[in-house]
Design goal:
The complex is a heterodimer of chains A (338) and B (280). By secondary structure, chain A is an all-alpha fold. Chain A has a two-stranded antiparallel ribbon with strand order 1-2. In chain A, helix 4 packs across helix 14. The longest helix of chain A has 33 residues. The two termini of chain B are 24 Å apart. The chains are: A mainly alpha (338), B mainly alpha (280). At the A-B interface, helix 1, helix 2, helix 3, helix 5 and helix 6 of A face helix 1, helix 4, helix 5, helix 6 and helix 7 of B.
């Protein structure tokens, strides 16, 4: 989820740094006079990408928005049984969906409280010059490159119910228990969160590390000359200048949680009894297994709206400072360039 | 930076290696469990879960490596990833080229259109996508996975390539134009070769995205001969659910290509992933 997630942030972050926001650079007008391509040429360049995009991204999304207002099993031509907002009303009274929202909220809170701070700490650690830090960096990022579905199969075996590997590990430290890691409603969410953290902490760590490397050393040298302590430097230089990166990782975490599917679907199938279900799993089951295409489409739209409204809100109120002319991150990296 | 006493330095080093060591255990133990578990038999897995295999049993790995289905899935995954990557990079490079270097009516609108594509996660669109693929007769067809994957990869690829293409000085294009090169020749023989680092980055991102894709092949490809590796692994684990050792061997072998690829393309992968997040 991280990989796709980053995409959402490319625009705002790079925008202030691009010197020519309208694409009109210095020598452009002269060149255009000599050899400006005609509309036909431009159309040829754009058409393949545009056609692909319209057919497989734009049309499906519009289609989903339309189908969400119908009762439809997906068969026999276009949907005809228009039911207005009934699907959405049902959604708001669906305990499974409300549970999904609750799980998403818990995952977000746990990420913000545990996963991100730990990744941040590790990044600060790996930024120091220690022998072997390159190897640690490679190693910590490794889980992120593994396929989610394959990771889930592996952890399904680790947390297997009958004296699996996790129980054996506990036994080695003196706890003799058979825990229903994935079958106990009260702990399954925490186990899933542990697996998610295993998979994704390296991604956040790498982003923090890159953000930390963008802070120019001169600031620390100047602070050291002024007699600042290590903690003061961290508090007054590192933390504020890491702000943009932190805000981006918070954003990516939240968007990622809303879209969570592969890992949880394979690991628990949302069970036991929907205790670890996510919105995407509910959507998949309603749509592909029960053929309630209209209802599942309404759920898709809800997922989209949640991400979209959150993204708008977040960009408007939280990322605003980062976009408004690079007071923080871009100013610092700009400074290091000059 | 700051001057440290030897004692302070010792404490710092110790702290570093303790924290790094704990994290290493956290990361490595599950992978070692798969690697070593594949060399055990099921009795050993039950009775000697934590120790080294004794005796080392290569049966699980050789069984998987000798099965046709494993290689078929590797082949399918690689094929789908390569074709998807080629399509998305080629189409995106063409679009990014005109976005970056020519002013024309509707450019901003088209750019916005592509950029909004990033707001739609795959999961949101998969259901209508399935219906459209069914209408087009692309179910049970690798293209039914390839084309949507490429389409969803377009926005990010276009945005990365556009900013790279913009950075190439206008004088080079001027010189090419004076030498009689049209847009196509400039694009193919000058711009693309100059953009090799950016092309490598976006290609790595597209390869990884395709290699890891699960939901789309899950709904599009029902025929076991077409399964990609992620689908194959999950189906295999369902089919042999009692044979844990063999599943571990399969899981390990399925992870291996990604790990090897990561070893080689680490720099491109990380620069691609962080280019969005941090370059101020």
């Amino acid at each position: 989820m991280g990989g796709r997630g980053v995409t959402a942030t490319k625009t705002p972050i790079s925008a202030p740094a691009e010197g020519r926001p309208d694409g009109r650079g210095g020598g452009k007008s002269r060149r255009r006079a000599s050899g400006r391509p005609g509309a036909g040429t431009i159309a040829t360049f754009i058409t393949p990408g545009l056609a692909l995009f319209l057919l497989f991204v734009t049309v499906p999304v519009i289609f989903a928005a339309y189908v969400g207002f119908f009762r439809w099993n997906g068969l026999g031509g276009a949907p005809t049984d228009f039911i207005g907002l009934d699907n959405f009303t049902e959604l708001l009274h669906d305990d499974v969906f409300l549970g999904d929202l609750w799980h998403a909220l818990l995952f977000v809170v746990m990420s913000l409280v545990l996963q991100l701070p730990l990744s941040f700490g590790l990044a600060m650690l790996l930024h120091q010059r220690f022998p072997g830090r390159t190897i640690f960096r490679l190693l910590f990022f490794m889980p992120y490159v593994l396929t989610e579905a394959v990771t889930a199969v592996l952890f399904g075996l680790i947390f297997s119910p009958s004296r699996g590997f996790a129980d054996a590990l506990l036994g080695a430290v003196g706890v003799d228990a058979q825990i229903g890691w994935l079958s106990d409603r009260s702990i399954v969410l925490f186990v899933v969160f542990g697996v998610l953290s295993w998979k994704f902490f390296g991604f956040h760590m790498i982003l923090y590390l890159a953000g930390r490397q963008n802070i120019p050393d001169e600031l620390y040298e100047a602070a050291a000359i002024d007699g600042a302590t290590g903690w003061q430097m961290f508090r007054r230089i590192t933390l504020p200048l890491m702000g943009p990166t932190v805000r981006i990782t918070v954003f990516l975490s939240i968007i990622g949680v809303v879209q969570l599917f592969d890992l949880v679907y394979v690991l628990t199938d949302g069970g036991p009894f929907h205790a670890s279900e996510t919105m995407a799993i509910t959507m998949y089951e309603q749509g592909f297994q029960r053929n309630r295409i209209g209802y599942a489409s309404a759920l898709s739209i809800a997922m989209f709206l949640i991400s979209f409204v959150f993204a708008l809100f977040y960009q408007r109120y939280v990322l605003k400072r980062d976009l408004a002319g690079g007071l923080t991150g871009s100013a610092a990296s700009e400074g290091s360039r000059s | 930076m700051s001057v440290m006493t030897p004692r302070g330095k010792f404490l710092r080093n110790t702290g570093f290696y303790i924290a790094a060591g704990i994290t290493t255990l956290f990361v490595a133990v599950p992978i070692l469990f798969a690697l070593l578990g594949g060399f055990k038999d099921n009795q050993q897995l039950r009775e000697n879960a934590l120790g080294l295999p004794n005796p080392w049993n290569t049966q699980n790995y050789t069984d998987v490596l000798e099965s046709d289905s494993f290689w078929q899935q590797v082949f399918n995954s690689i094929g789908i990833a390569l074709v998807s990557t080629f399509i998305v990079v080629a189409a995106a490079a063409m679009v990014a080229f005109v976005f970056a270097r020519y002013a024309f009516r509707g450019r901003e609108f088209l750019f916005m259109l592509f950029a909004t594509g990033m707001m739609f996660p795959f999961t949101v669109a998969v259901l209508p996508l399935f219906i459209i693929l069914r209408t087009l007769g692309l179910l049970e067809n690798p293209m039914g996975v390839i084309l949507p994957q490429a389409a969803f990869g377009l926005p990010l690829t276009i945005i990365i390539l556009r900013s790279f293409f913009r950075a190439i000085p206008g004088e080079i294009e001027e010189a090419a134009t004076i030498d009689g090169a049209g847009p196509w020749r400039f694009f193919l023989t000058i711009l693309l070769p100059m953009a090799r680092p950016a092309l490598a980055t976006v290609s790595v991102l597209a390869l990884v995205a395709s290699w890891n894709n699960f939901l789309l092949p899950l709904v599009v490809l029902q025929d076991p001969n077409m399964w990609t590796l992620p689908i194959g692994v999950t189906q295999f684990s369902g089919q042999y659910s009692t044979d844990t050792a063999r599943i571990l061997a399969f899981v390990m072998l399925a992870m291996l290509p990604a790990l090897i690829f990561y070893g080689f393309a680490e720099r491109h992968l990380i620069s691609g992933l962080t280019s969005g997040g941090t370059k101020g």
